[in-house]
Design a protein that fits this description.
The complex is a heterotrimer of chains A (about 240), B (about 220) and C (about 230). With about 240 residues, chain A is α/β, with parallel strands linked by helices. Chain A has 8 helices and 10 strands. In chain A, helix 4 crosses helix 5. The model of chain A has no long low-confidence stretch (mean pLDDT about 85). Chain C contains 10 helices and no strands. The chains are: A alpha/beta (about 240), B mainly alpha (about 220), C mainly alpha (about 230). Chains B and C meet through helix 4 and helix 5 of B and helix 8, helix 9 and helix 10 of C.
Chain lengths: ~240, ~220, ~230
Amino acid sequence: MNKTETDNYLEVKNLSKIFGRRKVLSDINFFLGKGEFVTVFGPNGVGKTTLIKILSTILNPTKGDFCLEGVSAKRDPVFIRQNIGVLSHNPYLYPDLTAYENLRFFSHLFSVEKVDERIDYLLELVGLSERRFDLVRTFSRGMQQRIAIARALLHEPALIFLDEPHSGLDPLAVEVLDETIGGLRKSGTTFIMTTHSLEKGLVLADRALILSAKGVVFNEPTKDVKVGDFKDIYLKQVSG
Amino acid sequence: MKSSKILSILTIALVPVFLAAIYLVFFYAPIEASLGFSQKIFYFHVPLSWNALLAFTAVFIGSIGYLRTEKKSYEIAARAAAEIGLLFTTLVLITGPIWAKPAWGAWWMWDVRLTTTLVLWLLYVGYLMLGGAVEEEGKKGRFSAVYGIVAFVDVPLVFFSIRWWRSIHPVVFEFRSGGMGLDGQMQVAFFFSLFAFTLLFAALMMLRIKIGQAEEEVISLKEGS
Amino acid sequence: MKTFKQLYALIEKDIIAQLRTKDMLSAMFIFILLAFVILNFGFFEVLEVIKQNPKVVGSVGGLLWVALIFAAVLGLNRTFVLEKDEGVMDGLLLAPFDRSLIYWGKFISNIIFLLIIQVLSLPVFILFFITQSFASQAWLLIITIILGDLGIVAVGTLLSAISVNTRARDLMLPILFFPVIIPLLIGVVKLSSFVFAPQSNLVTIRVWLQFLGVYDIIFLIMPFLVFDFVVED
């Protein structure tokens, strides 16, 4: 495990991804400090989900690398995976297993200690304790996403990826999600989120990034930006 | 370009080489005593067979190369070898029975070499069908490469399992091939024919790879950026 | 050790899911029964002759393995279907372990499922097709089944990870699988002929057992080298 001295919690260096002949990401560079919440904005197809997939080690980059706490993803992807949680459009749950069985399965994969206690706590957090022994197949989408939140948090990851997490959620699920994020922010968890909602993305974030076909074209703290102005900035950057 | 010059020379050279081979096979080499004229198919059958195996080895090497380097050129080469190999293998399976019928009275028998060739044919077909059934570019290359390796490793296993299986029962029919048992003139014809077919294989490979690379260029130009 | 716990979790997950739906197990079992019946009608006279002739009575073992291999392909096809259809594969890819562990988890689950099917269908096979006792050669049958299963599942799991990603998904696996499994098929049929026959030839048996062993070792090493490339997104 080669650690390089750095202040930055997450460092993304020259990340590129080519699918066959299509260049989806080119030369992505940015840094993240511990505890920061950054929202990545960008039009459909610009590569936001691809970026998340690469940073969560699901995909390998064609070029470039990134480091978490100084540990290179190329050299030690297992370390990265142990420290991140991912909440995506897909809840990553097995429909024929109960909520409890799903969570227990992932707990064992992530070497979670005191499994039952942790599962109880998280199910309570997302408000689904009574449904613990029901098959996930019987859950609504909002409920599945709430279990997915629990799944992502089982191993207390220090960095959490949210890939358009609010899409398709019922109001209760949105509330649970926002409350959970709020609680985690207080305890210093780092977040990267992608979203189509300019407002929500800005409100939650410390920093905003805009991704276009040219790469990262905007990277500023949100406290300096007003929502109305941001909309103009965004439209200008993505149509240029 | 250098490679297209080589290809042109090869292609032009093929004509006299094959004419010479045909002459040697049909006029120079004597008619074999027991089997008669039909034995001559052996001069085509065996070189085709050796080159089919050579092609399969090329698929194997190309597959390993692609997995290690992710360079498209390896994938193109492997696929080219598979197509040409399939062609040659098909010809082996056609010339085999043509020889077998006058020689032993049956169109087909489950002897070691012919059966192994049949399995080789099936492996080639599987490889090419797999390539056609995967849409995503990166996956296509990787899956084909993995199967190329698995299939290649399988061939010796197939050969030996059939050989030992058949050795329990008395071997009634077996193709005697190779340079053994051939007298001087036949050997000349045989090895020259082998040379001719290997040249043909090389030319077809170069041609097919060039076409493959051209296809790649066209598509990447189309998709632009 | 952490890896064993993770492996156990993977296997447990597949077993629970399968015991709950039983779709793979029931399909495979019914299929084998049907295969026995259909093969019986397809080769009725041949089977009658075989049963009478002590020299070839052992070859009835071939019937067992034909039915088993077709049923195995049916079952193996479903190995990664769940992950692929529900999109859960990424969930597994996020787990902090070497990707080949996914393969071994599936491998062991598949072996368990195949063994369950074999335990259930073997008595039926004996009932339908075996007239003489083979108790003294039962040991050979057990070893043959174990060696056969290892090879079938090793190759099948690897190839099904590929075929689940193709367009003609259900058809692709048999096309890729059958040519590769031929050496193993020859081996297990050969050994089965000694199980169900009155005479025995220990030298030949040993050669074929070794052959199956080599086949299994080769295809058990293969995933270590290539599975990462198959499962990468």
